[in-house]
Elongation factor EF-G (Perkinsus olseni), 913 residues
Amino acid sequence: MMKGKTRPVPLKCLKQGLTKDVKTVIVIGGGLAGLVDLDDDLAESFLVDENVPADELERAIRRQTIARKFCPVLLGSAYKNKGVQPLLDAVCKYLPSPGDRTYSGYDQSRNGERVEITPDEKKPFLGMAFKSQDLPPNGTLTYMRVYQGSLKKGQSVVDTKTNKRQSLKKLLRLHSSETREVTSAGPGDIVACTGLDVFSGVTCTDGKINWTMSPLHIPAPVVSLSISPASREDSTKMAKALARFKREDPTFIVSTDPGTKETIVSGMGELHLFIYAERIRREYNANVTTGEPRVNFRETINERVPFDYTHKRQSGGRGQYGKVTGYFEPLSHDEVQEILTKYQGEITPMNASKYLTIFQNNIRGNEIPKNFIAYIEKGFRECLEEGPLTGSAVCNLRIVLEGGKHHEVDSSEVAFKAAAQGAFEQAFYGGSPTILQPVMNVEVTVPTDKTGSLMSGITVRKGLVTGSEALTDLDTLVRAKVPLRNMFGFTTELRSITQGHGEWAMDFHAYEEMPADDQESVKKQYVQRRAREKKLEESIESVGGPDSALIIAGDIGGTNCRLRLLLVSKAAEKKGTGSDSESEEPKTKTQLLYAAKYPTASCPSLEEALARFTSEAPALDEAEMSNVVCVVGLPSDVKNNRVARIANIPHWVDTDGDAIAEKLGLGKIVLLNDFESACWGIPMLDESELICLNSGIPINKARTSAPAITSVLIGPGTGLGEGYLVTARATNHVSAHASEGAWVSFAPQDEEEFELLKFVKKDLGVPRVVVEHLTAGPALPMLTRFYGQKEGMDIADLPKTAPEVAGKYGSCPVCTKACDKAMEILGRELAFLCLKFKPQGGIFLIGNVVDSLRDSILAEGSSLRKGLFHSLYHPILEGIVRDTPINIVDANGVSMGMEGAINRATRLALARL
C-alpha cells in the first residue's frame, strides 16, 4: 500500500503491505483471468506457468490498454498524495508514447496537402498551443505540446494563424502548482511557455515549414448576454479580464453589438457565462452587471428564390438608380460543414452571416460596373446581420448575382447598396424562411427509480431521448437531444425530481430547424421586443414631464427576479375589470421603458438586485431618483415594510424596504406579499385575458347597493394562494389583502375521502389535513400514489411531479383520478369563497395547476364544476355560486404579480404629483 507525506509533492514514496480487507477485494476482483482472456501471448505464458513474470504482465497490460480493450485501475487519493507516484508510473508504462502513433498535418504551401508528422528532434519544429493560463509570478503561460523537432529557451516561433513571429522567454515544466525551468523540450513533451501571445488550438512552427495541424474542435457559441461595467475604473478591469478569458477559453467570445454598442459575451450556456461574470467580480474586483441571456438563433431559407429589384429615386438633380437580378438558395449540408470546420473558433453570433453565406458574382459583361459589385455585396451582408424573423443572423445561404442595369448619371455605390437591400426584403420571404435553433447533447445521471420522471421531463421540454444505460444497480445514464432554449431552469427541475441526487452535462450538437408552432411564438416575442424598443426610444424624451412619473415594479420568485421601469402619466384609460360602472381606475397611461430578469440565486439581496437594475436602466440617469416609486412583490409575509426571511430565497435576510430606498436614493419602496401584489393586478385585467368558467351576473348588470365591491383571487401552484381586493364604490379607494384561507381543514364527504384523509396524514406526517394539501401542485403526485396504491400498483413506477401527472391526464387512469379529485376539492373551495365573500367583482383563477389542467376544467361536467355547483346541497346557496362570475386568467404573457406591482406603484406615484 502506498503512503504519501503531507507536503504538496512527496519526495519519498513509502510502501507497506496490503491489509487483509484489501487482499479480499483483489481476490474477488478475479485476478489475471480477465487479462488472460484478452491477450493471447499472456495466455500462452500463463498455461505454462501461472507465476507470470512482472515485466511480461506489464507488457500485456500495455498492449491491451493501447488496443482499448483493458483499463488499469489504481487505488489512491489526492489527499496527502497517496498512490500518486504509481499512477504517474502507470501513465509511462501503459499509455502510448509519442512514437507509438502517427500524426498528420497540412502543408499550407501546397494547398493544404496532407503530410506526415514524425516525432524526430532533428526535423523542423511543430507544436500546438492548447491552453493559456495566468499563473503569478510567471505571468501568462501558454501550454505547448511538441509533436516534431525541438523547442529551446529563447527560440522564436511563428503563430500560423497570424504569421506573427514571437520569442520564448522561458520553458517551464509543471508539477501541480510548482514550476521548474528547463532549457529544451522534444517530441511528446508538454511544457509551459512565457512570452507568447497565441490563442488555444493554434499551430506553431519555427518558420522553416508552413504546416498546420487539425485545430481543436471549438463549437459555435449558443448563448449570449450583455455585460457592462458600473464605472470607468470597472471598465478597465473588465476589459482586462475579458481579454484574459478570451485567450484562455476559445469557446468564450467577446464582441460588440453594432446597434447598442454594448459588450456582448457568448458561450456554451447560461452557467458558462455567469461563472465568468462572477470571476470578473471576484478576481478583478470589478462591479459588472449582466443582461438577460438570449439563445443565439439563426435564420435561413429552404427553397431557391429569384430576385429582380430596381431601386429608383428622383428628387431633383442627380437621382439614384440601380437594378439587380439573381437568386438566393440554401447551402447544402456538406458546404455548411466544410465552412464550420474551416472557421471553427472564429464564428460568433455577430459575424455568423459573414462566414455562413456565400456571395457569388456571375455577371459576364458590363451590365453593372465592377466598382459597384462590392457595394451590392455590402448591401446584402448588412441585411444578413439581422434577419427579419428574429433579428438573428441569416446563414447557410448563397447569394448569386446574375445581372442588372446601371445609369451613367444616376447610378452610384449608395444606389446599388440600396438595390441589394431592397432585393433581400423583396425575395427573402419567398424562399420559405425558417428559424434554426441550437440543439444540445444532454447527458443526465439519475437514480434508476427516477428515470421515468426524468424522461417525461425531457419530453415536456421537447427533447428526444436517444438512449440510456445502467451505470450501476442504483444509477442510470440518460442521453437526449434537447433545444437549448428549453434547458433554462433544468437544474432546479432535476433537483426536484431526484432530491439533489442527479447530475447533468450538455454540449453543442447542431443547429436544427425549429418546429413551426415554436417559430410563431419566437417570432411574436421578437416583434413585441422590437415594439418595446421603439416605444423606449419615443418615451425617453418625455421623462420628467409635469404629469408623469417613473415607477419600478418587481415580481420576485425563488427562481427569477423580474423588474420593470415604466413611465406613467395622467391620461384616459379604459375601466378596470374589477370595478363597477360608477367607479373606474385612475386615468393613466403606462409605457414600458426597460425590463430585466435576473436569476435570484445570482442576486445577494433585493438591494443588490435593485442597484443593478437602476444602473442598467437607461432613463434613470436623467430622472430624479428621489421621485421614483418602487413596489416589489415577495413570496413571504411583510410586516412594517420588512421581511425577515424568505423560505425559498434563504440568502435574502432582513429585507427592509425603507432602508433600501434611503440607501439607493429612491423616493419610496413598498414591499408586498406576492399574493397581495397579485390581487392588485385584478383591475389591470382585460376581457381578452380571461376565460369564462361561469358567467354569473357581471358587475355592471348587478343590482346592488353594497358600499364596496369584492373580487377574489385563488391560485393553486406550489401552495394554494388566496387573496381579495376591495373597491369602495363612493371613493374608488382600493385595498388588497392576502389570505391564509387555504389552511382550513379538509372535510371528507364520502368513504373514499375518509380513506384519503388517513393516507394524507400518514404520507405527509401531519396531524391535520387542510385544503391546500389536496389542491396545490404537490397534491397531484400524492393523490396519484393514493389511487395507485388502491389499484395495487408499484408506486415507484408512478409520476413524481405535478407536470408529469397533469401531462398524463386522460391516458393514465390513476393520474386522471388524481387530477379529478384535486379539481373537485378546488371546486368546493371556490363555492365556499362565493359564500364567504359574495364577490360581485368575480373570482379569478391563476396558477400552474389550473394552466396545466385548463382543458379538463373547462369541459362540461368536469370535476371542478361538480365540486363548484353540486357540493352545497342547498338551492339558495347554489344560486349564490351560479350568480358569481368566475374566470380563468390566461397565463399567456400575464403575470398577475407584476401587473399588480405596476398598479400599486402607479397609484402611489400619481398621488405624489
Q: What stands out?
A: Residues 1-8, 25-30, 539-544, 572-586 have pLDDT under 50 and may be disordered. The chain has 27 helices and 43 strands. Residues 738-889 form a domain with the Hexokinase; domain 1 fold (CATH 3.40.367.20). The first strand starts at residue 2 and ends at 3.
